[in-house]
Design a protein that fits this description.
Shape: globular
Number of helices: 8
Low-confidence stretches: none
Structural class: mainly alpha
Helix content: over 70%
Distance between the termini: 46 Å
Radius of gyration: 16 Å
Length: 201
């Protein structure tokens, strides 16, 4: 049980957007000014990591949520809507640079995925944000490697193994039912694939 808790804690959903951003710049086969690159990474870190952390902390301090895991569908509604809006704003800002549209598409894909997850809360379906996080990253890297003809098979293999560990940990901790775990992963991967295909048509 302790191992599963550690996995869930270390690989929290809010770390995957910044991982995706860093990997994008590492493997992007064209030059981006280092100053611009560092500014984007910092902006992404603030928007997708620090702001959500502060927001969740404030909700807990104000007793609007009982735990940081946001165990009930009702507790998840406002935070998930907030994360959806942040993802959309970041996608817009990145797209307007007209230099890193693929990264912007990643955040638009995450926006759609989070919006679906938010709407499903009204059906009392608590989709797993952990598998959304890792699934979105995998879907993004699959399409990124395909569009640029990059060999990211080792990284993707590692991420698929990690996805299995994360999904197992969420099930072992009884944080989700299996359908909530697997649907989060499938939704995130398929959304990234579809939105990338549409963008590149």
């Amino acid at each position: 049980m302790k191992f599963n808790s550690i996995i869930s804690y270390i690989f929290h959903p809010i770390i995957f957007p910044i991982i995706g951003t860093v990997l994008y710049f590492i493997f992007l086969p064209r030059h981006i000014d280092s100053g611009v690159k560092n500014s984007i990474i910092l902006s992404t870190l603030i928007t997708t990591y620090f702001l959500p952390l502060i927001f969740i902390y404030l909700l807990k301090a104000l007793k609007l949520i009982t735990t940081y895991d946001m165990e009930t569908t009702e507790e998840r509604k406002f935070p998930l809507l907030f994360f959806t809006i942040l993802s959309y704003i970041l996608g817009i800002l990145l797209y307007r640079t007209n230099m890193i549209n693929e990264l912007a598409i990643y955040y638009f894909g995450m926006t759609i995925t989070l919006l679906v997850a938010y709407l499903l809360l009204y059906k009392n379906f608590k989709i797993s944000l952990h598998t959304i996080g890792i699934g979105g990253l995998i879907g993004f890297l699959i399409m990124f490697s395909f569009n640029y003809h990059l060999n990211l098979i080792i990284i993707l293999a590692f991420l698929f193994i990690l996805a299995g560990l994360i999904a197992t940990s969420r099930l072992k901790l009884k944080a989700h039912e299996s359908k909530e775990v697997f649907s989060g992963f499938i939704l995130a991967v398929s959304t990234q694939v579809i939105i990338s295909i549409i963008y590149n048509m």
